[in-house]
Amino acid sequence: MELRQIHYFMAVAAHQNFTRAAEQVHVSQPSLSIQIGALERELGTRLFDRLGRKVVLTQAGELFRVHAERALRELDQAAQVVHELLGAKRGRLVVGTLSTVNSYLIAPLVSRFKQRFPDIHLQVHAQPSSDIVSGLLANRLDIGICLLPLTHPHMTTIPLFEERLALIAPASMSIGTVRTRMQDLARLPLVLMPVDYCLRKMVEVECAKAGVHPQVVLEMSSPEGILQAVAEGTGATILPELYVRSRLPATRLQVIDLYDPTPRHMVGLAYLTKRYRGVAAEEFAALCQRTMRDLQSASSPTLTAGYPTDLSGRTPLRSTPPKGRPLLRSGTTLKVRRRVG
Amino acid sequence: MELRQIHYFMAVAAHQNFTRAAEQVHVSQPSLSIQIGALERELGTRLFDRLGRKVVLTQAGELFRVHAERALRELDQAAQVVHELLGAKRGRLVVGTLSTVNSYLIAPLVSRFKQRFPDIHLQVHAQPSSDIVSGLLANRLDIGICLLPLTHPHMTTIPLFEERLALIAPASMSIGTVRTRMQDLARLPLVLMPVDYCLRKMVEVECAKAGVHPQVVLEMSSPEGILQAVAEGTGATILPELYVRSRLPATRLQVIDLYDPTPRHMVGLAYLTKRYRGVAAEEFAALCQRTMRDLQSASSPTLTAGYPTDLSGRTPLRSTPPKGRPLLRSGTTLKVRRRVG
DNA sequence: CTCAAACTATAGCTAAAACCTATAGTTTTC
DNA sequence: GAAAACTATAGGTTTTAGCTATAGTTTGAG
Fold first, then answer.
1. Does ipTM exceed 0.85?
2. Protein-proximal positions, strand C, CB < 7 A
3. pLDDT for position A184
4. Measured distance CA(B122)–CA(A3) in Å, rounded
5. Which residue is closest to C11 in terms of CA–C1' distance?
6. Could you give the angle at which helices B29-43 and A59-86 cross, rounded to 10 degrees?
7. How many CA atoms lie within 13 A of B138 on its CB side?
8. Rounded distance between C-alpha atoms, residue B237 and residue B230, angstroms
9. Chain B residues touching A78 at Cβ < 8 A
């Protein structure tokens, strides 16, 4: 059984005439007659009675048609759902993002994305950078917003923006200045993230550069919790400045710049290089970059898309139909192939 | 889109491995790879991610698979219902039969047929011979039991048995003998069927042969009604002897043989020569002939079946797979074609 | 770290399938 | 009775789908 035979069969059933059915599916009448005959031989029964000029379905033909029609409808729907996915008219996008990035970046980003693609089901998971990497590798995530660099051979990364870390102290703590040297941290009780967090590692690295061993009095994994602990006077902390400034109206904290050296890191996008990215992921990445630009008035590199193979490329139009096998018309999965003379 | 591509796709989705999928559908791995690629190009998206040795469905692939699976199931069911029809495991048979034949022939016939083919939906319509012919021509009837000969070029007929007509008189009517000449009918009041009925025409013809003009005092279309009228003394009638004898225990009537000449006619099967007859119709016809044999202990000619084209013929088995294109395995509509050396 | 195994994609060739036009054969309509 | 309408067959051409060989990449074992 071939799909072309099903299409020819449905056309004959509709027209009750081989010649007109052949015209509809764009083949010659003998070609269609041969294919109907082949289908009948394969099934072992006549599907049509040829009574003079009348062509009518046999009982077998009537039974066959019900299922054949349903099958073709399923295949049409299969093509359609794929088409809608391509046009971002359906689908799901799973994004992993840093907890610190989650609050001030994601909200405006999600809002803009949903305005443009209301039919895409967006899931955003706030998690540590290392979990983002493993989530991408395990195909749980489509795209990630995490700390760079990522030295993983199967990942492609796109830098978005540089993020500075700042010292965050309770309002009651007397620092005496809006800028302080990294060396001055030696005397401060600090509330930091756990050791396996990238942010914590980064802080350790910057402190080591300044010859300082941070005095950690409390470890918490949640940035929200860290800020609450600092507000209550448990100690100070070092967190991304942008993250904290987005929360200042709700807390009574001091933001103190650090220097000598100034701790900073790159935040960017990451995805599996060889994994096919749908339209939703590509558009999300593009929107990320534009949103960064808007938030910082700074340009970002354009994300390069896709596989080497151009899946949407079209064969060139031909001026006359070839003598050989024509393709079936699109839309009904039966189409005419034309080629340049 | 081709059915083979759908089958290959489902195999890859199941195995998550091109090589093993190719083995299942009995083609080489490069052949399958090419077909999957062609399907992906036609749809304009990847259906699988090839991640090192892992092959996983993309989101498009997952959506496509749901509908593809349903489509294949519908096509399997299409083939199956046709197969069941061929094995008389399903279907409908519409039989037209003479009213007079209906009572004594149909009941044992239907009983035997239903015993052998319980799944066939049998419809029996008692109607005049001329309606049977037009019903066959209009595809309302599959087969008919009617009076022969039928001089219609598109009909094939099979004689079943010869039926004699007899004079049926009320018990109160003094005939004086168990046999009477056709000429003696001249003086009898007769209850006959309407003029357009074949039986009536036949009676007119036989009377004309004997030079008798029948004195019709009542016309009724129902043989039951005719017998009731005769029983009440309205007159005598001429009906098939077998029909009346099957009813004698319930009526007080005389059956008188007619001779000089003896009126008789042939009852047989009729069907459209060029219309495909399913298994049910063929078996019904064969059963008719065997039932006639049993009722009369007389042999009948065997019904010759079908079209010149042998639709159920099988291609001979081959000893080794050919180098060319293998067929897909049956049962999954994927099969291997083997041919003799 | 290297090599072999496991895997998919491409190249080139061959066989089979599906197409075409021409036309034979039958039926129907004027 | 003839022409038109229709399907089926014949023979040739074009296209497709198969094959084997192998290129290229990734993974796992030693």
1. no
2. 6-12, 14-23, 27-29
3. 85
4. 34
5. B30
6. 70
7. 8
8. 7
9. 63-64, 66-68, 71
Residue of A323, A22, B41 whose CA lies nearest to A338: A323
d(C-alpha B102, C-alpha B288), whole Å:
13
CB B57 within 8 A of CB B65: yes
Instruction: Verify if strand C has an atom below 7 Å from the CB of B315.
Output: no
What is the pLDDT at residue B48? 96
What does the DSSP 8-state code read for residue B197? S
Q: How many other CB atoms are there within 10 angstroms of residue A180's CB atom? A: 19
* Most confident region among A76-80, B171-175, B179-183 by mean pLDDT: A76-80
d(CA A111, CA A117): 10
Q: What confidence tens digit (pLDDT) does each residue in B47-70 have?
A: 999 988 889 999 999 999 999 999
Within an 8 Å CB–CB cutoff, is residue A62 touching chain B? Answer: no
The residue written with tokens 């083995």 in the block is: B23
All residue ranges of chain A with pLDDT < 70 are: 249-251, 296-341
Which of A 262-301 have CB under 7 A of nucleic chain D?
274
Q: Is B50 on the interface with A (CB under 8 A)?
A: yes
The structure tokens listed for A198 are: 């990238």
Three-class secondary structure of residue A301 per DSSP: coil
Distance CA A176, CA B217 (A): 134
- Is residue B254 pLDDT above 50, yes or no? yes
Which of A58, A82, A92 shows the shortest C-beta gap to B64?
A82
Nearest CA to the C1' of D17 belongs to which residue? Answer: B325
Who contacts A18 (Cβ-Cβ below 8 Å, separation ≥6)?
A: A12, A29, A32, A33, A36, A55
Q: Are strands B253-259 and B155-170 parallel, antiparallel or unpaired?
A: antiparallel
Taking the C-alpha atoms of residue A218 and residue A234, their distance in angstroms, rounded to an integer, is 8
B47/B67 Cα distance (integer angstroms) = 13
Give the C-alpha distances (Å, rounded to integers) separating B205 from B158, B159, B195, B201, B262.
23, 21, 12, 6, 12
pTM exceeds 0.80: no
Residue pair B125/B264 in contact by the 8 Å Cβ criterion:
no
- Does A123 contact chain B (CB < 8 Å)? no
Helix H or strand E encompassing B125 = strand B121-126
CB B221 within 8 A of CB B229: no
HEC assignment per residue over B243-279: HHHCCHHHCCEEEEEEECCCCEEEEEEEEECCCCCCH
Cβ contact (<8 Å) for A45 and B1? Answer: no
Band of pLDDT at residue B34, cut at 50, 70 and 90: very high
Q: In the structure, how far is the CA atom of residue B138 from the C1' atom of nucleotide C20, in angstroms? A: 36
CB nearest B1 (choices: A3, A139, A312): A3
Q: Which domains does chain A have, with CATH numbers?
A: 3-86 (1.10.10.10), 92-160+266-296 (3.40.190.10), 163-264 (3.40.190.290)
A94 half-sphere exposure, CB direction, 13 A CA radius: 11
